[in-house]
Amino acid sequence: MLCDACSVLRFDDAKFGGFEGDCGVLEFPDDEQQQYFDLEYDRRDLLPHLPNLELSANAGCQFCKVLRGSNPYAWLEQQQGN
Question: Comparing C-alpha atoms, which of 70, 35, 30 is closest to residue 50?
């Protein structure tokens, strides 16, 4: 599950040439042309505890959980059970 802010991370890979390759793995054409797309992702929070990401992660957003977990302060807080 993704929260509203993180739902912009969903995109149609076929629009960028994505296809199902061998073994069912997503692949893109092997060309040297780079493709850019705007995600319009903007999040703001407070260090060191990232309370907004924590709320969203606790509500079920997996990406917020990953982002918050990548912060060393938040990770240490989790490990200490706070």
Answer: 70
